[in-house]
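Input.
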Amino acid sequence: MNVSSTSDIEITLWRTWALTVTHETCEYTEQKFNAEKTGGDPVIPSPKLDTDLVMACDRLVDRLIKAYKNPIQMQIDIARYSKLISPKDTGHNEEREEKLLERCPPGHEGTKLVEIPATILDASSAIIAWYLPDALTDATQEIWVASDLLAPMLEKSVKVDGNWRTNQGWFNPSSENDALTPGCINLSLAWFQQGHENQSDPEVSASLKGASSEKILKAIARPAAIATAVWETTPQ
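Output.
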């Protein structure tokens, strides 16, 4: 068997592992969250999850339960607010922002410091945000490795005349002592090619077409599984 075929097999096995682990992580986290929320029977994790991932899921569920039991209600109607805000609102038009603020007040007075897990609710008790501090274990913070690999692209993404995501004014200047490089890039395996002829055929985003793409995906596999579990578990 030549080197090329061996490499292909290794990549296929890794992709299968990543997808399987993500699925099992979501299943275990959601079932454990529902069991603890309702007082159900203990949930046994899948043998496909290693000890580090099981501990990460348990930590996440603990933070989710604490957040669920600590609701903070705000006097705003998030559905009405979302209809008033247009995709064209970039945040750079001060006059427009003032008008939006008048029509969409923040729903609270002053500043409220939240230091423990919490859910933010609107006036109809719909959950609009989950605050989950310290939700990641040390073993699942490989995202730092990926951040180092992404540093060159993150640095190039910030521009003086950038849009609302990449404008230089939204980022603090980077220094030698910074652990992370400020910036904003898109990581997607199925990026919608807006403005192109074949709009029905998603492609890998430009940030994942570089030489380090495979290393980046491997580095974020576990954190991505935990992040996906959050999306799968948090009730809307």
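The beta strands are 71-73, 118-121, 127-131.
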